[in-house]
Design a protein that fits this description.
heterodimer; A: about 230 residues; mainly alpha; MetI-like fold; flat; B: about 280 residues; alpha/beta; D-Maltodextrin-Binding Protein, domain 2; 2 domains; globular
């Protein structure tokens, strides 16, 4: 054991490659989250409308994406749908699509929950002063719902970022996949390299996710302070 | 209350129905697969040349066959072959990294044109994809300590032999050599540790792994280089892709005559396997 395992990170371009993998991960997660959160907010608002058919269809969509494990969804969209429909998207786009649809489904439930937990008298007062439905949502319900849904949303965001580690299944060169390449390529020379490679991947995910969850906690505390005086 | 229950029931039925729809769609693809490949095959030699790239599935984590070096370049025995094939087709190679489990799906979903990922020919796989002529052979080998070498299968009778579960080695000794006592482990690391701790008199695995392993273990030797049936590693194409299959067969033959595989062996595998192994043990003449 002449070599210390940590040196595996500094051989050649290993560290740069790991950061490249992280960039892919962050790119996919970011685009999917932006699209998914916007779509999710729209769907969430629609789900509080009285139209039964609309609510039923959206509920179906939510349950579909919530019940089926993400691994299965990725496999379905990458390997099985192309065979059936003849659409053949590159892996990174499939990944973004699946994650966006999944985020939208979960987000729609968060938004719906937040909207219906705005106290009932707020809605009724709004209607009493003659606000239209659009005005009611725009000026009364959505502003109050935002602070209610923030912690849950951040929680969803961190979950999505973590789940990108499944992407190696569909040949996306994310940080986990690159990490595995590095581990296997250096197995002979650095038997303990695996510890350091996964260690740095842990640090990378932590550096992205922890500030988010810290921020969520802070927002929640602020909200409670505001609400309870 | 009653109405509430009804709504839930409808919701449940709806979800069940949509799931069935999806699942049945998955089930269908077996029957439609054959017609699919016949009507629109994006992986014929013509199509590949028109596109200007050939998409090849490779491993990224299996040195010395397909892996990524510290400069971030894909290298290995399979990769050298892949680049040569692209060069002879006069197209650019595009590598798609796969793992052992999704090599078949990558082909059948038209994600790749060709698989060059240490793909062992088995009867089960032959039913879903087409293999071209093999370019490498492996078989079970037995490694033992240099001071007490095992050179014949008869020396193993009634003694402990170390294997990893689910390998060809386990399969061979269970069915063909029932008098050998097997000590089974879950991973490569475990099995090699067991051998070092003298838990058995020898260890059996794919011989190419063993060659690479003994290179760093001067106290051990591959006493039995090959036992049982040989297994072949071959390029694979989507089932029914005659055009690329025939081209690949011809290509392998030409490369063989040119001595390409020996060169490939010397540059990629020899540094891993050491001097004990001759190219003839691995490549096909």
């Amino acid at each position: 054991m002449a070599h210390s395992g940590i040196n595996v990170l500094f051989e050649g371009r290993n560290l740069i490659r790991l950061f490249g993998g992280l960039l892919t991960t962050v790119e996919i997660a970011a685009v999917a989250l932006i699209l998914g959160l916007i779509l999710g907010i729209v769907l969430g608002v629609l789900r509080t409308f009285p139209n039964r058919l609309l609510r039923f269809v959206l509920r179906l969509y939510l349950e579909f994406f919530r019940i089926i494990p993400t691994v299965v969804l990725l496999f379905l969209f990458y390997y099985i749908l192309p065979r059936q429909l003849g659409v053949n998207l590159p892996a990174n786009e499939v990944a973004t699509l699946v994650f966006a649809l999944w985020t939208a489904a979960e987000m729609s439930d968060i938004v719906r929950g937040a909207l219906i937990s705005v106290p009932k008298h707020q809605r009724e007062s709004g209607l009493a002063i003659g606000l239209s439905r659009w005005q009611l949502y725009r000026y009364v319900l959505i502003p109050q719902a935002v602070s209610l849904e923030l912690p849950a949303t951040i929680n969803l965001v961190t979950r999505v970022i973590k789940t990108t580690s499944l992407l190696m299944l569909i040949s996306v060169m994310d940080v986990i996949n690159v990490g595995q390449q590095v581990v296997e390529a250096n197995n002979q020379k650095y038997p303990t390299g695996v510890f350091w490679v996964y260690g740095i991947i842990f640090v990378m995910y932590f550096a992205i996710d922890y500030p988010l969850s810290w921020w969520a906690k802070r927002m929640d505390k602020k909200r409670l302070e505001r609400a309870n005086g | 209350m009653k109405k509430f229950g009804f709504k839930k029931l409808v919701l449940f039925l709806g979800i069940a129905a949509s799931l069935t729809l999806v699942l049945s769609a998955c089930g269908n693809n077996k029957s439609s697969k054959s017609s699919n490949s016949a009507s629109s095959n994006p992986s014929t030699v013509q199509q590949i040349k028109k596109r200007g790239t050939i998409r090849i599935a490779v491993f990224g984590d299996l040195p010395p066959y397909g892996w990524v070096n510290k400069q971030g370049q894909r290298v290995g025995y399979d990769l050298t072959l892949a680049r040569q094939i692209a060069k002879d087709l006069k197209v650019k190679p595009k590598f798609v990294q796969v793992n052992a489990n999704n090599r078949v799906d990558a082909l059948n979903s038209n994600k790749v044109d060709l698989v060059l990922a240490n793909f062992t020919v088995t009867p089960e796989r032959k039913q879903v994809i087409d293999f071209a002529s093999p370019y490498m052979k492996v078989s079970v080998g037995v490694v033992s300590p240099k001071n007490k070498p095992i050179t014949k299968a008869s020396e193993l009778q009634g003694k402990n032999l170390i294997v990893t579960k689910g390998t060809t080695a386990e399969n061979y000794f269970t069915s063909k050599q029932p008098n050998v006592k097997l000590l089974k482990f879950d991973s490569k690391t475990q099995q090699f540790n067991a051998l070092k701790n003298n838990r058995g008199v020898a260890l059996a695995d794919d011989n190419s792994y063993l060659y690479a392993w003994v290179k760093n273990q001067p106290k051990f030797t591959v006493g039995i280089k090959s036992i049982g049936l040989k297994q072949y590693i071959a390029p694979a194409v989507k089932k029914g892709n005659k055009s690329l299959l025939n081209w690949t067969n011809k290509e392998i033959k030409t490369l063989n005559n040119k001595g390409f595989f020996e060169k490939d062996y010397n540059s990629q595998l020899k540094p891993y396997f050491g001097k004990e192994v001759k190219p003839e043990d691995i490549i096909i003449k």
